């Protein structure tokens, strides 16, 4: 139903709700575009100089135009109150509990996305700006007890399918924006703030590749704020895996840490 809008395929539990809103807004815009366009053509002919040598300073009479304006305002209010605000409220109020979700810190920087998983203990280790270096972009203090099992990654967000993912989003330098189009997620990353963002991925990367027939299809993380000269290359990938694949990936990371 959405192909006519050119939307990327949907791959999260709440995507349908966002798409429904987009469809309704586009229908309203189409009706307004056609309606106003037709009205414009009508007045061009009706009030042409040839038929109206003397200008009227009174203007249009009648209630139709006012009723139409009120109707448009009511439709917009309905979209806002019954669709947009409830959908947004779910994003910002119904956060999944941390013990049920996959919790990840995502830290933007010019020009990469750093992923920080709390590891088996479920606690994020201490980070310190003084420890930031080329091979420790998060400034993670590996001497901290909570940090010992933390998993980090760059530009690759591994998540299991059908489980809530709770991202704590922030940035080290300038404002970036975490855009996951198939998940219908977009949130600005602001220095000094940690903003919760959540979604439930419903289609694994492998399944999406099979569905689209594109063997190299990836869920892209696109930085959606112009954040500097390298903005164009600030992209990462969400790798949505089956539970078994995700467990295997986690085990691999744990093994690499032990080395
Ligand atoms: Cu950016």
Helix percentage: 25-40%
Small molecules bound in the structure, each named once: copper (II) ion
Question: Helix/strand/pairing class, anyone?
Answer: alpha+beta
Query: What is the tally of beta strands?
Result: 10
β-strand percent reads 15-25%
- Looking at the structure, what is the overall shape? elongated
Q: How many helices does DSSP assign?
A: 4
**What's the arrangement of strands in the largest beta sheet?**
3-2-1-5-8
Mean pLDDT equals 92
Q: Quaternary status of these chains?
A: single chain
Q: Low-confidence segments, ≥5 residues, pLDDT <50?
A: none
**SSE succession:** HHEEEEEEEEHEEH
Biggest sheet details: 5 strands, mixed
From the alpha carbons, calculate the radius of gyration and give it in angstroms. Answer: 25 Å
- Note the gap between the termini: 50 Å
Keywords:
alpha+beta, five-stranded mixed beta sheet, 10 strands, binds copper (II) ion
Summarize the entry for a quick read.
This protein has 259 residues and is α+β, with helices and mostly antiparallel strands.
How would you characterize the overall build of this protein?
The strands form 2 sheets. A 5-stranded mixed sheet has the order 3-2-1-5-8. Strands 4-10-9-6-7 form a 5-stranded mixed sheet. The longest helix has 32 residues, at 15-46. A hairpin with a 4-residue loop joins strand 6 (176-180) and strand 7 (185-189). It is of the alpha+beta class and 259 residues long. The N and C termini lie far apart (50 Å). The chain contains 4 helices and 10 strands. The radius of gyration is 25 Å and the shape is elongated. The structure holds copper (II) ion. Copper (II) ion binds at residues 108, 176, 223, 225, 227, 231, 234.
